[in-house]
Design goal:
alpha/beta, Spore Coat Polysaccharide Biosynthesis Protein SpsA, Chain A, 12 helices, 41% helix
Length: 265
């Protein structure tokens, strides 16, 4: 069952950490999402991909300082676009999302991604919408073999499970209000990162033990977490290696610019 055309609200995270970002510093811009990649502000790439997709009805840019984007010539078009609106974010992703859900009348489903997801494209969005539709919550990830088959020198952070080594693709799906307890837990952990045991307590000891002993698959583990919360949770194993390559470090930008250059040839 697919989400109706133009019925999805996309949330584009365009915030930044309080510590100086190397990409922003090198570019001489105040915020990382404004840093250029291949001659354009990085946020413009995922923003255009979202707006061009037939399933996306509206885009909400969540950021600490909306005025920065309205004042920058490279991103002023976002502030003027009829299907884009800016909302102020807080100190963390989960807390900002919770606050947004509380103050704004947002229809589900919601698809969330990040401003540094420069390589986001229609194929990735097609797969996410197709495979996440019907779930209360879904997370996109890339298995290591998928990435290394195309980019053997790319380095990511991997989570090891019985069904492979996985890296996040920065695309999330919230299909219904049932996702709120998971977002609330996320917020709780963000507020006190030292108490990571809260995650274990919420997800259940079998999930942790399965991960440690590598007897659980990631797909099964996510489904089990969903059942713990009384909802349908799903892994979307992305087919495109580029789904987990974001513009986080200077080396990432070099790789992304090479990918963009090859695609333009």
């Amino acid at each position: 069952m697919s989400a109706p055309a133009s019925d999805i609200t996309a949330i584009l995270l365009a915030g930044w950490r309080p510590v100086p970002d190397p990409l922003a510093l090198a570019a001489g811009v105040e915020a990382k999402p404004l840093a250029p990649v291949a001659g354009d502000a990085m946020i413009n790439y995922p923003a255009r991909a979202l707006l061009a997709h037939p399933a996306i009805g509206r885009v909400i840019v969540l950021t600490q300082a909306p005025e920065l984007f309205a004042d920058d010539p490279a991103t002023a078009w976002l502030a003027e676009h009829p299907r884009v609106r800016f909302e102020k974010s807080g100190g963390g992703i989960a807390s900002s999302l919770t606050a947004l859900l509380d103050r704004a009348d947002l229809p589900f489903p919601l698809l969330m991604t990040t401003a540094d997801h420069v390589l986001l494209d229609a194929a990735m969005l097609d797969q996410m919408v197709r495979e996440a539709s019907g779930a209360d919550i879904a997370v996109a990830m890339v298995e290591r073999a998928t990435l290394l088959a195309r980019y053997p020198r790319s380095r990511r952070t991997w989570l090891k499970f019985r069904d492979g080594w996985w890296s996040g693709a920065n695309i999330f799906w919230f299909g219904s209000g049932k996702a709120r307890p998971v977002i609330a837990l996320w917020q709780e952990v963000e507020q006190d990162r030292k108490k990571g045991w809260k995650i274990v307590s919420a997800f259940g000891p079998l999930t942790l033990l399965g991960a440690v002993l590598r007897i659980a698959t990631l797909r099964g583990g996510i489904a089990r977490v969903g059942r713990r919360f009384g909802l349908t949770a799903r892994l979307v194993a992305m087919e495109k290696a580029e789904a987990c390559i974001d513009a986080d470090k200077p080396d990432d930008v070099v790789l992304i610019e090479a990918i963009l250059a090859n695609a333009a040839e």
